């Protein structure tokens, strides 16, 4: 779930031990064996944290069956020496350590089970508000609007970008109903709807106002998960980087064909007006585009267009089409808890207590319905722009190369899936061009 689930975006390599999670070596070794120590694991870059403390103090929802709860756990993982995959080590169900907030280990039986479920509640809320809604659906919207406002329909960038925007404004408009007070998101997610909207907007803004550091290679590096020797088993990262590379190459070939020098970039008034609208306060309110919010080099343009195309296609596919397979069975990924933390981590926790913690059956059914719908509409396919979309033979040739590259990636991912837990959400054949569901 952390490296190949619907939200494979939270885990971070620990650069120091975290005083909020005061695990002892003795506890660590109960899980990892006496050959390993916290200090050695930290020095090797083998310790990873899933930090949900942003939910501390969040306003809980209460509609309609009763009080709902979100949680703010910290979950510690480690890669054993010489091994490839993360092992769950410890969960503390709230960020502030204390006698009433114990650290649970896998040997803790039912209490470990509920601690894992608490992590799943938090992760499900990060997934829907931040990773899915905020950082794909909302992230793309200003680009859609500025593109239609500023580029003439014959502009090469209009031709390249608009297939990656098909249906996005429509589905985002549709989402307004889901996001209404007493709408489906209010029903399902743990926080109050106002609070969930704030999480979504903050997540979107965090990327939109830091465009240059929201590129996939940079976000992986910031989270410290870019080093494949330290964390070898990370299917999302490995497949996403293949797609980022292929999209980047296609965009570079395309941009360099029409922009033969940086001077041509600077002289393109439609492009410059597009950037101006994207960063304007009464426009997209984006920030950290290019250099000082100006695109004056071809490489800056290539990076930005790659980010847009990748987010609209591959990134959305990874967080969207994983919903039905991995989140629709409510005990696996509850969208809210229905019991306060204080009652969950007591000794003697029973199956009956777990059932009371889970959403009621009608809400579980509503969840199944919506996630099935959201994961079942595959409209268009990455790289398939239509036969007549690009008429320039040089571009058609670049496109053929891009499509061949996507086929190679398809085969590569299928090969990888023979020797790892299968991860199929970034198979190019299952990635639509745009966010339309
Ligand atoms: Fe979606």
Please give a structural write-up.
The protein has 437 residues and is mainly alpha-helical. It has helices at 25-32, 38-44, 110-150, 156-161, 168-178, 184-188, 193-208, 216-222, 235-258, 262-267, 269-279, 298-320, 323-327, 341-344, 351-357, 361-374, 393-416, and strands at residues 12-13, 47-51, 74-78, 87-92, 103-104. Strands 1-2-3-4-5 form a five-stranded antiparallel beta sheet. A hairpin with an 8-residue loop joins strand 3 and strand 4. Helix 3 crosses helix 5 (168-178), helix 3 (110-150) packs across helix 11 and helix 3 (110-150) packs across helix 12. The two termini are 22 Å apart. The mean pLDDT is 97. It binds fe (ii) ion.
> How widely separated are the two ends?
22 Å
Can you count the beta strands? Answer: 5
Please tell me the overall pLDDT. Answer: 97
Instruction: Give me the side-by-side strand order of the main sheet.
Output: 1-2-3-4-5
Largest sheet: 5 strands, antiparallel
Task: Estimate the helix proportion, in percent.
Answer: 40-55%
Q: Which consecutive residue ranges, at least 5 long each, have pLDDT under 50? A: none
The percentage of residues in β strands lies in: under 5%
Class based on secondary structure composition and strand pairing: mainly alpha
Shape: globular
Sketch the topology as an H/E string, one letter per element.
EHHEEEEHHHHHHHHHHHHHHH
Quaternary structure = single chain
Provide the list of bound ligands, each named once.
fe (ii) ion
Spatial extent as radius of gyration: 23 Å
Helical stretch count? Answer: 17
């Amino acid at each position: 779930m952390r490296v190949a689930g619907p939200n494979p975006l939270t885990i971070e390599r620990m650069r120091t031990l975290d005083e909020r999670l005061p695990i002892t070596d003795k506890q660590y070794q109960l899980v990892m064996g006496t050959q390993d120590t916290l200090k050695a694991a930290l020095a090797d870059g083998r310790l990873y944290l899933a930090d949900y403390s942003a939910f501390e103090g969040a306003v809980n929802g209460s509609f309609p069956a009763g009080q709902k709860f979100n949680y703010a756990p910290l979950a510690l993982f480690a890669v054993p020496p010489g091994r490839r995959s993360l092992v769950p080590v410890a969960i503390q169900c709230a960020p502030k350590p204390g006698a009433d907030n114990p650290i649970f280990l896998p040997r803790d039986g039912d209490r470990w089970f509920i601690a894992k479920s608490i992590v799943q509640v938090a992760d499900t809320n990060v997934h829907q508000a931040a990773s899915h809604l905020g950082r794909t659906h909302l992230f793309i919207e200003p680009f859609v609007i500025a593109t239609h406002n500023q580029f003439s329909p014959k502009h090469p960038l209009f031709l390249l970008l608009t297939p990656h925007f098909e249906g996005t404004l429509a589905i985002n408009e549709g989402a307004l109903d889901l996001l209404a007070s007493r709408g489906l998101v209010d029903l399902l997610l743990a926080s109050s709807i106002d609070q969930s909207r704030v999480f979504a907007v903050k997540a979107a803004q965090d990327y939109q106002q830091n465009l240059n550091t929201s590129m996939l290679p940079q976000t992986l590096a910031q989270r410290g998960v870019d080093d494949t020797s330290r964390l070898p088993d990370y299917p999302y990262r490995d497949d996403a980087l293949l797609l980022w590379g292929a999209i980047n190459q296609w965009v570079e070939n395309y941009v360099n064909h029409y922009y033969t020098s940086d001077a041509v970039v600077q002289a393109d008034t439609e492009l410059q007006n597009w950037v101006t609208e994207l960063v304007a306060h009464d426009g997209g309110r984006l920030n950290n585009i290019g250099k000082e919010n100006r695109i004056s080099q071809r490489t800056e343009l290539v990076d930005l267009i790659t980010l847009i195309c990748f987010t609209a296609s591959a990134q959305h596919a990874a967080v969207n089409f994983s919903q039905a397979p991995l989140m629709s069975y409510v005990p696996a990924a509850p969208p809210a808890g229905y019991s306060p933390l204080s009652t969950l981590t007591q000794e003697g926790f029973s199956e009956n207590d777990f059932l009371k913690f889970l959403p009621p059956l009608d809400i579980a059914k509503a969840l199944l319905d919506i996630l099935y719908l959201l994961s079942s509409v595959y409209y268009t396919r990455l790289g398939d722009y239509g036969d007549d979309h690009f008429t320039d033979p040089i571009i058609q040739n670049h496109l053929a190369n891009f499509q061949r590259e996507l086929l190679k990636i398809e085969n590569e991912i299928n090969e990888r899936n023979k020797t790892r837990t299968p991860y199929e959400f970034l198979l190019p054949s299952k990635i639509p061009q745009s966010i339309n569901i």
